[in-house]
Amino acid sequence: MTLSPEAAIAPIVAERVQQLHLARAERHLFLCADQTKPLCCDKQLSLEVWDYLKARIGELGLGTRVLRTKANCLRVCLAGPILVVYPDRVWYHSVTTSVVERILQEHIIGGQVVHEYVLTAPALP
Ligand code: FES
């Protein structure tokens, strides 16, 4: 008897899901960075912000609760770098490293949206 391709890779996939803490993740941050066409900001700036975001998530011990993904373009294409926090549906503009720090400290850890950099969000408290 041979396993189907899906069954054969299932243990590998399950291990990867566990490694990434996908079941425990509470939020997912998407940052426009390393764009093919850097329209919203300077590409180098986006990469600096991306490196900072990755490092700080690790340093703050958020790696099991917060996922991060580098998006090629989030379609706003202005006033970047653009960052969106899901499932909160809060979109931020002009996300420099100092703004990332505030988003992590105030929004992700503290639960308070950083209003001055909000592009759009559901009804803010
Ligand atoms: S290039 Fe950043 S949102 Fe499109």
Cα end-to-end separation: 58 Å
How many domain regions?
1
Give Rg in angstroms.
Answer: 17 Å
Q: What does the main sheet amount to? A: 5 strands, mixed
The tally of beta strands, per DSSP, is: 5
Mean pLDDT: 94
Classified by CATH, the class is Alpha Beta
Structural class: alpha+beta
Q: Could you say what the CATH architecture is?
A: 3-Layer(aba) Sandwich
Strand percentage: 15-25%
Explain what this protein looks like in three dimensions.
The protein has 125 residues and is an alpha+beta fold. The chain has one domain: 3-Layer(aba) Sandwich (Glutaredoxin). The chain contains 3 helices and 5 strands; from the N terminus they run H-E-H-E-E-E-H-E. The chain has a 5-stranded mixed sheet, with helices on one face. Helix 2 (43-59) runs parallel beside helix 3. It is globular and about 60 Å long. The mean pLDDT is 94. The structure holds FE2/S2 (inorganic) cluster. FE2/S2 (inorganic) cluster (FES) binds next to loops.
Give a nutshell description of this structure.
This protein is 36% helix and 18% strand.
Note the main attributes of this structure.
36% helix; 5 strands; Glutaredoxin; alpha+beta; 125 residues; single chain; 3 helices
Topology of helices and strands:
Blueprint: H1 5-19, E1 27-32, H2 43-59, E2 66-71, E3 83-86, E4 90-92, H3 97-109, E5 118-120
Helix pairs in contact: 2-3
The chain binds FE2/S2 (inorganic) cluster (FES).
